[in-house]
Amino acid sequence: QLADYYVGIGRSQDAVTLLTALSSEQASFAEAEIRLAAIDYAQNRVPDAHTKLDSLLARAPNYSAALIMKAQWLTRENKLDEALERAKAAVAADPQSASAHFALAVVQDRRREVADATKSYGEVLRLNPRAVAAQVELSRLSLTSGDSASALRFAEEARRTEPANLDARVAVARSLVAGGNRARAEAEIAALLKSIQQASVPTTNAAPI
């Protein structure tokens, strides 16, 4: 937690120092190493990040969190075959991890394996019914397949879970448009635009003159 605090306030080097010390302890080495790798990746030291993560996986090949992170990085780098392999390994290592199934779904989605991605996003929701990101993606995939009713159902579930989530609200509006419900769609879009405008208005704590 202290390392996370240091990263959050921009003291990355202090976080690295702390995590390096922790990585020498058997009980905490895996968590420390994965955080060190994440810091490298966030600071665009991509080869160093992959080296750290690969070294960790060589010592702990079934460490689901590291497999998920590797899959996410490879997906971002458009290395989708390797990403798929790592995501499947993460699911195999921890079948009850919603995060692992989500990582797999994202790779399958990027590979345009719609049926597999839909199934994996569905598994995410089975494990975590409040997973808004999965609900939004299922709404999008439902729209792609022409099922506006399912798209709206997933989008509304996401909005109920997180009413202020912009992705969920956009998904609701898109689903209404696709379903031909113009009046509700216009109302949703108007409310969404109002929320965005209000969020962009600067605030001041200055005392009145």
Number of discrete helical segments: 12
Largest β-sheet summary: none
Helices and strands: which structural class?
mainly alpha
Helix content: over 70%
What is the approximate shape? elongated
Query: What percentage of the residues does DSSP assign to strands (E)?
Result: under 5%
| Total number of strands | 0
> Mean of residue pLDDT?
86
Write the element-wise H/E pattern from the N-terminal end onward.
Answer: HHHHHHHHHHHH
Radius of gyration: 21 Å
Poorly predicted regions are 203-209
Distance between the termini: 42 Å
Question: How would you describe this protein?
Answer:
With 209 residues, the protein is an all-alpha fold. Helix content is 77%, strand content 0%. It has helices at 2-8, 12-23, 29-42, 46-59, 64-76, 80-93, 98-110, 114-127, 132-144, 148-161, 166-178, 182-200. α1 packs antiparallel against α2, α6 packs antiparallel against α7 and α10 (148-161) packs antiparallel against α11.
